[in-house]
Design a protein that fits this description.
Largest sheet: 2 strands, antiparallel
Distance between the termini: 37 Å
Number of strands: 2
CATH architecture of the largest domain: Up-down Bundle
CATH superfamily of the largest domain: Rhomboid-like
Structural class: mainly alpha
Number of helices: 15
Shape: globular
Helix content: over 70%
Radius of gyration: 24 Å
CATH topology of the largest domain: Rhomboid-like fold
Number of domains: 2
Length: about 300
């Protein structure tokens, strides 16, 4: 499989799979970089590779490496770390997407990781003796936010577990919290507090979405704005765009103007209908069919008949 095929497979996959692919790709790149650095500069230099993607333990160092608040949640030390996190993410992420949209999945993943990193840096800076630690690396806080978030929102959702049979998500969440509490050994306190941050973010999301408030909306707006800005810069640098600017258009006739205005009106109407349909579907997911007004129900019914 060549690079173009890998690129097409990535672009055609869901956002959930893209997150998993990015984690795997970063893991492989870091491993190769670590091996090459080991043979060129020695063991200490090899271990320092993680310092550039992991969140530093102290605030003064983190300020000089702000990008690590994102890169750390896509990086892993060992094979079993990434294997466990990605299986957990794929399994619960698919259930999450039965209720919420892919953007909310990405938003909660990022927020879980950010909150976990913030608690980690705060703890290490305020109490360096207790929280003394190396750089924070791993997707656990981000993944735990999704696990707890869907478990809080759909506590009675049944899943099948080997040796346990059918079990509700609320028991999965409770078991997850208990396991993390019991596994506390006082060694990796910084990583432990980061995991707690991810779980708290998931709890906040689940409780807030039940009240009709989506806490991931603001970060998704930021992502959309960044993507739109990036695409605009790419288009401005494109040769095709430059040619279009130099092209002189002929004057439109009255018939062409009428056709153009009619086409624009039709397109605008379709865009408005699609936006309204998306809004109604989001409301349906959050609050159920009974929360829709009679007008919204009629609109949804007519839209389904057309499609």
């Amino acid at each position: 499989m060549n690079f173009s095929e890998l690129k097409n497979k990535y672009l055609s996959s869901s956002l959930l799979l893209r997150i998993i692919y990015i984690n795997i790709a970063v893991f492989l790149v870091l491993k190769v970089a670590g091996i090459l650095t080991f043979f060129v500069a020695g063991k200490e230099a090899s271990l320092s590779v993680m310092n550039w993607v992991g969140v530093p333990a102290y605030l003064n160092l983190f300020i000089r490496r702000p990008w690590t608040i994102i890169t750390y949640m896509f990086s892993h030390y060992g094979l079993f770390d990434i294997l466990f996190n990605m299986l957990w993410l794929y399994w619960l992420g698919r259930i999450f997407l039965e209720v919420f949209n892919p953007k909310q999945l990405v938003g909660l993943y990022l927020l879980g990781g950010i909150v976990g990193a913030a608690l980690f840096v705060a703890g290490c800076s305020l109490h360096p003796t207790l929280f003394a630690s190396g750089p924070l690396v791993g997707a656990s806080a981000a993944v735990l936010a999704i696990v707890i978030g869907i478990s809080v929102y759909r506590p009675d959702y049944k899943i099948g577990l080997l040796f346990f049979g059918s079990i509700s998500l609320k028991w999965v969440a409770i078991a997850t919290v208990v396991i993390y509490l019991v596994s506390f050994d006082g060694v990796n306190v910084g990583g432990y507090i980061a995991h707690v941050g991810g779980m708290l973010m998931g709890l906040w999301f689940g409780l807030a979405i039940k009240r009709g408030h989506d806490v991931t909306s603001w970060i998704n707006r930021c992502i959309d704005s960044f993507v739109a800005l990036f695409q605009k810069k790419v288009n401005n640098k494109s040769p095709k765009t430059a040619k279009k600017r130099d092209f002189k258009f002929k004057k439109s006739t009255n018939n062409e103007k009428k056709s153009s205005s009619s086409s624009q009106a039709s397109t605008t109407s379709e865009d408005v209908s699609e936006e309204r349909l998306d809004a109604i579907l989001d409301k349906l997911k959050r609050s159920g069919y009974g929360a829709l007004s009679d007008e919204e129900k009629e609109f949804l019914f007519n839209a389904s008949r057309k499609r």
